[in-house]
């Protein structure tokens, strides 16, 4: 989508052909007898299937997969792709998601046959390059976290959280303690409380102080010997660095609980301060955030964890280790381990990309990335604090932010009659991805903006100008935003109807 | 050192001015001095792109991949051919670089892909409800266990010993958190022991977990096992290899409640174990307890057809501690590869591929068990993988074959004490008759060299 666009509300068409395709599915393109696949020739005796597998085990009707030719498949998915907005094409300040540039080298190195065609059960002797890479990544992540031991196994952030709570449970059980509660601040991401339940604990919410940090008095009141863990991210989802983190750690450790770091916000602090030095026992990383794994429209990611010495015995199996002779191996012999969280060694292809990123930047580069992320966020915040915007979209906290910040759309709703959702939808007409909306829950009509370090000043200037323009436009005619978007492949969709009468597969 | 930032010195000055601070340092004032790192991160110095490439190329060259040897190694992931059109599509920025589709108006491509994927999985499994992917196979089994727990709250889970060891271990790890215990049902003649299952079943069993084909490659009588589980009101979870589902009776027609599985073999590369995707399909009654994203069809304000993430009141961002799962980021791109692959195979191709695998596998099984010192570990029907017993030191045999450029398969002793002499052999469409013959000849030589009675001498001969 072009950056300058027609302000007229009923702009008829987008500039890109096929965006307004009629959403024909691959099944609807199916024509009996068409095909793409040519099976390799049958070079062994052709025996009837039922001679090899009893008839009663066999399928009677083939799965109704589409019958399409290769050119049609390519065209179908290429046309579908044009109905997606993506980071390589435009600004994507989706708070908490760290939509930074995905370096193109990474796809090349992940695709090297020695990586891409390496079987996960290959004998470690014949997978030394892969294990060395994983070991190198473990060491680098340990250094960034300020914690000595790393498991790369978890598949995403929420999987890392689950690992962290299962480790916490194993740690307390090993000490003969039975603890039932996990504390999460009311600013926490939804995966935190959801994980608590899945790990068999009860959620206890901790409040937020007026400065955006944890309400330390509330924490003190709720921290007792029944508490297994406090899950926190710092900076938190408000973009605020909790100045009381040392005291928080003391309170949590004082009752024998673990302190868990949700690493979704690590992009603010790499090389500046470290969770381990703040007192955290367990950290997860989102390699698909700070460490450039492309999001893929909803994964894949990876959620490695780093832990302190006392948690190490319980880490999942297998662990990548370096033996005395300098070779690398997979260690399954871990008697106190919580076990496996998934198959094999984790999302290795993601490790390759993140390792390449760390080797490209080095320590100084990682620090520069975080500094620039924070600079960009504060610059954008400063632009949005100007007259014409700040009256309607005030910052939730009047202080410097870290790598992201929260605005409240409440005055905008009150004064202009448009909601945060409307602003987000109108942004779509301007060719930018909206910020995260209605999260964190604590802030009314919240917008969470994270520009990341890879954006230019011009992009940030443009975004601020667009927001000001949308507010100005709403002052004249709020209907424009309320009915936006106009130029997208489809306009507002009936989500309530979709949930009430779910059609989640093509009837065939 | 590489950098992917774009801020020049002049930009920085202008930006700091606009913010109203003197230095970037000032932006970090909230971080207590005692917590500052105060030194550079102790990491190797940054490199140029070409240096990083060279380093990673050298590391990759130290792996022996399926590119470098003729591989009969499977055991959960398979060296299947990934057609070129998959790379061409999934490397497109529009699929590679967006986030989860939170703004449906500009994410119709990804959402429609999910809808098409769900349809394909639903067709394969014979179950009406599929989500848009979970992480991978074994954790999908764990997620299915959690769904069973949410459904009936019963305390025991029975898992066949034919379920992939990684799946059983993962289930064990996760269920320890949510409070179920896992018991194992033994195998007899290569398949789940029906009598043992009957004996273990009671009304406190939440779920029975099976795998089709099982870890030893055997086709299980899922319908019979399911029927006895149902007598006690237990849910049946079946971990399925998706390619054999092209020819085998789908789990949905056998009474299975939840079908999950590892999707790697559907158009995803081996990648030393990931990323791939897990699929997760279930009977209609579970639709509001499913984990993960689900795309649904709807219309926009102009009546145009469109797709959205739906039934979100199951999910963590809405329901928080009451969510039916904590999953957020899943494996959308890998699932896209999956649906492209299934479309490429098509209705007839999936069956042809299955038939080819069955026939080549039957040929390989006969050819290998004809070798002196090699017998079938079981006689159950198989699709693409089978288990052998070697009257020889398995590790030495595998090593000797590796030296000849053949990966002989998975040593069952790595996860089954009772099959210390076992070798699990996988056949993919990439393994021709000529390669199978070469394998058979090499195996005959290696087994002869390492016969159990003559292990000492054989080990010498093997060098
Ligand atoms: C603050 C926070 N915590 C946890 C998560 C969960 O991470 P993932 O999606 O990788 O499971 C996210 C992102 O989605 C997040 O923003």
Automatic annotation (TrEMBL), chain A:
Protein name: Probable glycine dehydrogenase (decarboxylating) subunit 2
Gene Ontology cellular-component annotations: cytosol; glycine cleavage complex
Cofactor or coenzyme needed: pyridoxal 5'-phosphate
Modified residues (N6-(pyridoxal phosphate)lysine): 289
UniProt keyword Oxidoreductase, yes or no: yes
Stated role: The glycine cleavage system catalyzes the degradation of glycine. The P protein binds the alpha-amino group of glycine through its pyridoxal phosphate cofactor; CO(2) is released and the remaining methylamine moiety is then transferred to the lipoamide cofactor of the H protein.
Residue span, Glycine dehydrogenase C-terminal domain: 369-476
NCBIfam families: PRK04366.1
Keywords: Oxidoreductase, Pyridoxal phosphate
Signal sequence coordinates: none
Domain Glycine cleavage system P-protein N-terminal, chain residue ranges per copy: 51-312
One GO biological process term: glycine decarboxylation via glycine cleavage system
Broad EC category: oxidoreductase
Subunit architecture: The glycine cleavage system is composed of four proteins: P, T, L and H. In this organism, the P 'protein' is a heterodimer of two subunits.
Any GO molecular function: glycine binding
Catalysed reactions listed for this entry: N(6)-[(R)-lipoyl]-L-lysyl-[glycine-cleavage complex H protein] + glycine + H(+) = N(6)-[(R)-S(8)-aminomethyldihydrolipoyl]-L-lysyl-[glycine-cleavage complex H protein] + CO2
Organism: Conexibacter arvalis
Family classification: Belongs to the GcvP family. C-terminal subunit subfamily.
EC nos: 1.4.4.2
Key word S-adenosyl-L-methionine present: no
Pfam families hit by this protein: GcvP2_C, GDC-P
UniProtKB/TrEMBL annotation, chain B:
Domain Glycine cleavage system P-protein N-terminal: 4-440
Enzyme Commission number(s) of this protein: 1.4.4.2
Keywords of the record: Oxidoreductase
Pfam family, one: GDC-P
Swiss-Prot/TrEMBL GO biological process terms: glycine decarboxylation via glycine cleavage system; nucleoside metabolic process
A molecular function GO annotation: glycine dehydrogenase (decarboxylating) activity
Keyword check for Oxidoreductase: yes
Catalytic activity: N(6)-[(R)-lipoyl]-L-lysyl-[glycine-cleavage complex H protein] + glycine + H(+) = N(6)-[(R)-S(8)-aminomethyldihydrolipoyl]-L-lysyl-[glycine-cleavage complex H protein] + CO2
Domain of life, per lineage: Bacteria
Function comment: The glycine cleavage system catalyzes the degradation of glycine. The P protein binds the alpha-amino group of glycine through its pyridoxal phosphate cofactor; CO(2) is released and the remaining methylamine moiety is then transferred to the lipoamide cofactor of the H protein.
NCBIfam families assigned to the protein according to its UniProt record, in alphabetical order: PRK00451.1
Record's subunit section: The glycine cleavage system is composed of four proteins: P, T, L and H. In this organism, the P 'protein' is a heterodimer of two subunits.
Family: Belongs to the GcvP family. N-terminal subunit subfamily.
Protein name: Probable glycine dehydrogenase (decarboxylating) subunit 1
Organism expressing this protein natively: Conexibacter arvalis
Organismal lineage: Bacteria, Bacillati, Actinomycetota, Thermoleophilia, Solirubrobacterales
């Amino acid at each position: 989508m072009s950056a300058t666009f027609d302000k007229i509300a009923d702009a008829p068409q987008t500039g890109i052909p096929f965006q307004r395709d009629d959403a024909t599915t691959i099944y609807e393109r199916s024509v009996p007898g068409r095909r793409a696949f040519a099976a390799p020739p049958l070079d062994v005796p052709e025996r009837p299937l039922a001679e090899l597998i009893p008839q009663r085990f066999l399928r009677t009707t083939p799965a109704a997969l589409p019958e399409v030719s290769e050119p049609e498949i390519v065209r179908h998915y290429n046309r579908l792709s044009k109905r997606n907005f993506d980071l390589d094409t435009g600004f994507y300040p989706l708070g908490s998601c760290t939509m930074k540039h995905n370096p193109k080298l990474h796809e090349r190195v992940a695709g090297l046959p020695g990586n891409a065609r390496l079987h996960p059960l290959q004998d470690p002797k014949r997978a030394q390059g892969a294990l060395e890479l994983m070991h190198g990544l473990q060491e680098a992540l340990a250094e960034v976290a300020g914690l000595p031991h790393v498991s790369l196994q978890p598949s995403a952030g929420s999987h890392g959280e689950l690992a962290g709570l299962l480790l916490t449970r194993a740690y307390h059980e090993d000490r003969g303690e039975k603890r039932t509660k996990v504390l999460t601040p009311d600013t926490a991401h939804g995966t935190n409380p959801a994980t608590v339940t899945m790990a068999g604990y009860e959620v206890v919410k901790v409040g937020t102080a007026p400065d955006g940090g944890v309400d330390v008095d509330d924490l003190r009141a709720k921290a007792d010997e029944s508490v297994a863990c406090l899950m926190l991210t710092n900076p938190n989802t408000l973009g605020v660095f909790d100045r009381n983190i040392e005291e928080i750690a003391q309170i949590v450790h004082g009752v024998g609980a673990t302190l868990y770091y949700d690493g979704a916000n690590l992009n603010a602090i790499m090389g500046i301060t470290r969770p381990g030095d703040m007192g955290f026992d367990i950290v997860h990383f989102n390699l698909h955030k700070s460490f450039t794994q492309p999001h893929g429209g909803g994964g894949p990611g990876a959620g490695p964890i780093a832990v302190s010495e006392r948690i190490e015995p319980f880490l999942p199996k297998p662990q990548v280790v370096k033996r005395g002779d300098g070779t690398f191996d997979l260690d399954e012999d871990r008697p106190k381990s919580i076990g496996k969280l998934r198959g094999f060694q984790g999302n290795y292809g993601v490790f390759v990309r993140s390792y390449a990123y760390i080797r490209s930047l080095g320590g100084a580069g990682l620090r520069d990335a975080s500094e620039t992320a924070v600079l960009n966020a504060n610059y954008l915040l400063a632009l949005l604090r100007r007259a014409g915007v700040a009256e309607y979209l005030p910052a939730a906290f009047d202080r410097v932010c870290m790598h992201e910040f929260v605005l409240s759309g409440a005055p905008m709703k009150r004064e202009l009659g448009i909601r945060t959702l409307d602003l987000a939808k109108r942004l779509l007409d301007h060719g930018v991805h909206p910020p995260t909306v209605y999260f964190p829950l604590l802030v009314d009509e919240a917008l969470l903006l994270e520009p990341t370090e890879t954006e230019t000043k011009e992009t940030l200037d443009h975004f601020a100008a667009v927001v000001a323009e949308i507010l100005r436009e709403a002052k004249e005619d709020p209907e424009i935003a309320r009915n936006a978007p106009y130029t997208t492949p489809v306009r507002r969709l009936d989500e309530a109807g979709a949930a009430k009468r779910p059609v989640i597969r093509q009837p065939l | 050192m590489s950098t992917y930032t774009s801020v020049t010195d002049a930009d920085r000055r202008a930006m700091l001015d606009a913010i109203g601070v003197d230095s970037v340092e000032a932006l970090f004032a909230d971080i207590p001095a005692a917590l500052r790192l105060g030194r550079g991160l102790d990491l190797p110095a940054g490199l140029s792109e070409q240096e990083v490439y060279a380093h990673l190329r050298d590391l990759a060259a130290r792996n022996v991949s399926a590119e470098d040897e003729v591989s009969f190694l499977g055991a959960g992931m398979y060296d299947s051919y990934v057609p070129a059109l998959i790379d061409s599509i999934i490397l497109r920025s529009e699929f590679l670089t967006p986030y989860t589709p939170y703004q449906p108006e500009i994410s119709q491509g990804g959402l429609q892909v999910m809808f098409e994927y769900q349809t394909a999985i639903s067709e394969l499994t014979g179950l009406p409800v599929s989500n848009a992917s979970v992480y991978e196979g074994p954790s999908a089994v764990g997620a299915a266990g959690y769904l069973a727990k949410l459904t009936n709250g019963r305390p025991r889970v029975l898992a066949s010993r034919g379920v992939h060891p990684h799946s059983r271990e993962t289930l064990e790890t996760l269920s320890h958190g949510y409070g179920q215990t896992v018991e194992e049902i033994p195998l007899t003649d290569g398949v789940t022991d029906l009598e043992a299952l009957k004996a273990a079943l009671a009304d406190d069993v939440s779920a029975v977990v099976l795998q089709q084909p099982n870890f030893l490659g055997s086709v299980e009588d899922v319908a019979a096992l399911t029927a006895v589980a149902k007598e006690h009101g237990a849910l049946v979870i079946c971990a399925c290899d998706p390619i054999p589902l092209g020819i085998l009776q789908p789990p949905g027609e056998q009474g299975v409640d939840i079908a999950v599985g590892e999707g790697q073999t559907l158009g995803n590369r081996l990648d030393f174990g990931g990323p791939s995707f897990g699929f997760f399909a279930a009977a209609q009654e579970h639709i509001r307890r499913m984990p993960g994203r689900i795309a649904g069809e709807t219309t926009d304000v102009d009546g145009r057809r469109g797709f959205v993430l739906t039934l979100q009141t199951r999910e963590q961002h809405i329901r928080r501690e009451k969510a039916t799962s904590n999953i957020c980021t899943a494996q959308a791109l890998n699932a896209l590869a999956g649906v492209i692959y299934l479309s490429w195979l098509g209705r007839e191709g999936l069956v042809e591929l299955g038939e080819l695998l069955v026939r080549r596998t039957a040929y390989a099984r006969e050819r290998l068990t004809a070798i002196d010192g090699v017998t079938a570990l079981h006689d159950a029907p198989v699709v693409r993988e089978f288990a052998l017993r070697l009257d020889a030191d398995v590790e030495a045999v595998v090593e000797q074959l590796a030296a000849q450029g053949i990966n002989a398969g998975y040593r069952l002793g790595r996860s089954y004490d009772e099959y210390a002499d076992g070798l699990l052999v996988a056949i993919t469409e990439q393994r021709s008759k000529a390669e199978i013959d070469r394998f058979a000849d090499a195996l005959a030589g290696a087994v002869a060299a390492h016969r159990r009675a003559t292990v000492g001498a054989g080990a010498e001969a093997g060098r």
